[in-house]
Specification:
globular; alpha+beta; 373 residues; disordered N terminus; 9 helices
Length: 373
């Protein structure tokens, strides 16, 4: 059974200015789903959340939460300006800082936003959230007696307690280690499904966006530059600008040297290096192209694998090794073409990876994707 009185989501379109910086957002998120606003620091993501929450007044547009208009500039069909105060919007808000009250216990923090906090219904609601977010047994502790993960669970429980119509999360797991972020992310998805609440999550972590998002909007300099399913937008972005924002490690400037329609592939060249990629419409022999390859899609080997199905095998020399938790990033010099690859610590030790070591990079044609400007 749904935790909320209705199954409606949230949507809107607005512009908001803070000094010389302008943010524009057109968004929609259904109940029980997570919309991720992804982008670098300073892109306008937090400003967008604060605007939806009513903490910043837009210049123009409209915002609806659970089929209720909470902001309208008066220029639409209704012709009447609307401004609903933040505490009347039915919004839960969790930030990285969590803002729990240090003088209150976990139980009292969770119950803070409930009416008639001492009622049986309120206590039942608190007990439900304590169990759902694995805080049972910690209800009488103060904030300073909790770990970072427990504090974020308590902050999420407090935001969910009044049964909000929309939950806003501003990088709530950014200060936690990778393993704990994954654990809390899994709990968040389960909680969102159970309580049927729409969520807008701000993050600049690609891994978090992939793991949690049902839909992703990439924001840069205050505007949305791409949107769609996380795997499509983040794994194989279609534009060079987006690829740089989502952290595609290898962007190779090449030229089409052959088209192989019978195989569904084409061959691209950079200096003396050849690369087989998926066949792209509109690309003729001689055309310049930018090829994207994720570091995680490249396998390192001590030598070529003659019986491998991978179509691309490049010899190179290790030019740099850098720590990239949970593993390492190895950069190869392939006759002047740098190629970045990811490898685990165990594999790096077993292969004896070090600067100057000759190794082979092996990757499939399907791991390559072409980028437009």
């Amino acid at each position: 059974m749904s935790d909320r009185p209705n199954g409606n989501g949230a949507s809107g379109r607005f512009t908001v200015s803070l000094g010389d910086f302008r943010t524009e957002l057109d968004f929609a998120v259904d109940a029980g789903r997570i919309l991720v606003l992804f982008g670098p620091s300073g892109a306008g993501k937090t400003t967008a959340l604060r605007t939806i929450a009513g903490l910043v007044r837009p210049d123009a547009g409209h915002i609806e939460i659970a089929s209720r208009t909470v902001y309208a500039d008066g220029n639409g069909a209704g012709g009447r300006p609307v401004w609903v105060q933040p505490h009347r919007r039915g919004v839960g808000y969790v930030t990285q800082q969590n803002h729990l009250f240090p003088h209150l216990t976990v139980r009292r923090n969770i119950a803070y936003g409930l009416r008639e906090r001492g009622s049986d219904a309120a206590q039942q609601r608190v007990a439900e959230l304590l169990e759902r977010l694995r805080l049972d047994g910690l209800e009488n502790r103060r904030v300073w007696q909790l770990s970072g993960g427990q504090q974020q669970r308590a902050a999420l429980a407090r935001a969910l307690a009044p049964r909000p119509d929309l939950l806003l999360l501003d990088e709530p797991f950014a200060a936690l280690d990778m393993e704990l972020r994954r654990e809390l992310g899994s709990e968040l998805r389960a909680t969102v499904r159970q309580f049927d609440v729409p969520v807008i999550l701000v993050t600049h972590s690609r891994e978090e966006a992939l793991a949690l998002g049902d839909e992703v909007q990439i924001i840069d300099s205050g505007v949305t530059v791409a949107s769609g399913p996380p795997l499509t937008v983040l794994e194989q972005p279609g534009r060079g600008r987006v690829a740089r924002l989502v952290g595609v490690e290898n962007l190779l400037e090449m030229r089409v040297s052959a088209r192989l329609p019978q195989d569904g592939t084409m061959v691209c060249a950079a200096a003396d290096r050849l690369l087989e990629t998926p066949l792209a419409d509109g690309c003729a022999v001689g055309d310049p192209v930018t090829v994207g390859i994720r570091a995680s899609d490249i396998i390192l080997a001590a030598g070529p694998l003659p019986e491998s199905s991978a179509r691309n095998t490049w010899a190179g020399v290790v030019s740099e090794v850098a720590l990239r938790p949970p593993g390492y990033e190895v950069t190869l010099d392939c006759d002047g073409v740098p190629l970045r690859c990811h490898i685990t610590g165990t594999s790096m030790e077993a292969m004896g990876i070090a600067t100057g070591l000759p190794v082979w990079a092996i990757f499939k044609a399907s791991s390559c994707f072409l980028l437009s400007d």
